[in-house]
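Problem: given the chain below (265 residues), write out its structure.
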Amino acid sequence: MLLLVNLDSGSGAAIAANAKSQGVKVIDYDRLTLNGESDYYVSFDNEQVGKLQGEGIVSCLEGESKPAVAVLNGSPTDNNATLFKKGYDSVINPKFKSGEFTEVADQSVPDWDNQKALTIFEQMLQKANNKVDGVVAANDGLGNAAISALKARKLEQIPVTGQDATLQGIQNIVNGDQCMTVYKAIKKEADAAAALAITLAKGDEPTGVSDSVNNEKKDVPAILLDPVAVTKDNIKQYIGEPDFPKVAEICAGKLATKCKAAGLS
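Solution.
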């Protein structure tokens, strides 16, 4: 049994092919291997992750007249980043086409590198003469890079999306610098993959595999878990989850007062 988390689909497909040639079943974990031979796929519904981000920026910009929106995508070699983009594009592209929103720029960040994201976003701001009213950032790290660039130019409290519900992302939400993130309960994903692996190792027929995802070569049976949007209004709902930041971490230092306002202390 092989649980595979690929760095890129090319190397992942080679690893899966080698395993299959030796009769080993392969489970793609978290990230789908394109054009591969994997038997199963366990992840979150990553297109839905992106859709939640798109809906989040729309909600955060409600009432703004023709807001200018910049888009920071994840790594172009990461299929998850492709799915996130497909999700939020389904929400924001109609806004751009109708003229309801103005697109500032749309650019991918190689390797999800936050420093590169900072440089890319600073260039976006420069070209737009600082006219940016909202940012669709594909994860919390890219979102924080955008927030850093905005603050450096005294452009604060501009809605920025994120994903992963990292400590930094949650703190940015509490502080008013980020309008939302997406929480993916990692333990649930790991438990689902482990249960599937044990079932297959026993030679039993797996249950709960109710979806399938095409990897551009074949349809791969899949378990897709549901992500959830997190805003300042519902952070406290997820406090206590095993992989969600703890109140003591979130509210450290200068955030104590704002945590109290958010009902976290």
